[in-house]
Amino acid sequence: MHLNSAVAAALLATGAQAHGFHGNPHGFAGQNHIPGGHIPGGPGPAGSSPSSASVSYTVPEKLPTFTPTTVKAEFLEQFDEAWDSRWKASHAKKDTAGSEEEWAYVGEWAVEEPYVYNGQVGDSYLVAKNAAAHHAISAKFPKKIDPKDKTLVVQYEVKLQKGLECGGAYMKLLRDTKALHQEEFSNASPYVIMFGPDKCGHTNKVHFIFNHKNPKTGKYEEKHLSAPPQASIDKISHLYTLIVQPNNTFTIQKDGETVREGSLLEQFSPAVNPEKEIDDPKDTKPEDWVDEARIPDPEAKKPEDWDEDAPFEIVDEEATIPEDWLEDEPTTVADPEAQKPEDWDDGEDGDWVAPVVPNPKCADVSGCGTWTKPLKSNPDYKGPWSAPYIDNPAYKGVWAPRKIANPEYFEDLTPANFEPIGAIGFELWTMQADVSFDNIYIGHSIDDAKKLADETFFVKFPVEKALEQAEKPKESEKPKSPSDLKFLDDPVTYVKEKLDLFLTIAANNPIEAIKFVPEVPTAVVGLLVTIVALIGTLTSGGSAPAPVKKAATDAKEKAKDAKDKAAEAVATGAENVKGEANKRATRSSS
Ligand SMILES: *[C@@H]1O[C@H](CO)[C@@H](O)[C@H](O)[C@H]1NC(C)=O
């Protein structure tokens, strides 16, 4: 790989912030009640909350076995053998209107049991199989789901078998249209709700976006939940639940705990309902509007005794010559140690004169030569006079345009009456393969969704947690995620992994990649640039990594010189990536 040191420098700088990468590592964060009283292998009495990371789980002797649920719902999916009669992958081209490049949904899907921390024997997930690929798959509902005047419950499990550095794991509930061609499902397919994890670099969200139809124009607009909660990006299963009530309140739960709640009318951006009144665009500030609150007092006059010409400093007449001052000694003398060079030719070179040096006799006294009285600050100094400021009697206040009724105004008091939903789809780009989904519930019963979770998620969660904990020591020996790497442990791997991550993110979402460039002390960047340059040499020359350590020390000295260059290089790297932004399509139209 060719290392562009500018990009690499920008990227390496992120090492300083590597901790920012992960979401909440604890599946169970708060003290809330966990549904599903009995947790096999779990600690404490039935129903108690395994609320902190210090809770330890025991791997049961025999793993629980999957049994299909008896819970019924408008749509319920456990990925049994008949799954492919319902789900169809799309190989459409991604809609990249206005872009030169084309994306196709080449990512493959499989239904299989997890290979990481498998908590239930015989439990299959839907798995997006390919790294750095666009995936799309959808399933039509047997009957359209109409959320009008009903509670809507959307619930599913996400298991990130390879973690997630950059990629989506959200679902889309697709608008019920007359002809929903599953093989053409793409980012352009209209959706009603988008819900679930999305992670890239420092961004980590559980999205909740809904499309709202403007009753005046008939146009749809996406409403995004502001300050969305964070997704868990470890490798065990996590349960995401969205509940929307007919009174427009919503609740988002992760692993059965509420992580966000509010109202569709309040927590979304842009707001469902526009402002009643807006600034009148025709109103302009009058020419004679006075918006200076304070002015120089026009009545004020310079006082008679104000001498603008009095100097800032005057001679200190009281000063006396220091006792040790040597008035008769010159300040410089001919260097007594200098000698006429042997090859000096008075005829050609002129008369030789010894060079002049400071008089050594003056070194330890106050001074030599003529003494003059020093200056001191002038107590009569006033400087130029200016009038004091007073409140402006003509001040009219800050000007604002007058308000008029908003011609676009409407009021929808029931945004929770979403349009009918005809299908569910996953339309994702992911850098990590094996993003997996299970136990999807879409319906109207909070209790049924809970019952399903009790039979499935809350059975395997403690097992997966135990399997994860049993493996923990091994993992800490050798970090697998680039964000876990520490620079000094292994500089070569660190640089390579970080660069790979940066380039992959940049290819998918350049804006996000730019956010990877934090403001770190430039000296650090300077150090890293030097090392990147060196590693560039190493990887092409194929020599041993031993000199790297020495270089790291040497580079500290060079860092100062390198820092200006580094700052320049970072700026250029970001510019390059920004340029890419215009060429490349991003991963979701949302
Ligand atoms: C909305 O409805 C739910 C379910 O009936 C209820 O629990 C909640 O208190 C209501 N919220 C408001 C603000 O009316």
UniProtKB/TrEMBL annotation:
It is a single-pass type I membrane protein. Residues 274-304 have a biased composition (Basic and acidic residues). This is Calnexin. One of its GO terms (molecular function) is calcium ion binding. One of its GO terms (biological process) is ERAD pathway. It comes from the Eukaryota. Belongs to the calreticulin family. It comes from Xylaria grammica. Keywords: Chaperone, Disulfide bond, Endoplasmic reticulum, Membrane, Signal, Transmembrane, Transmembrane helix. Residues 1-18 form the signal peptide.
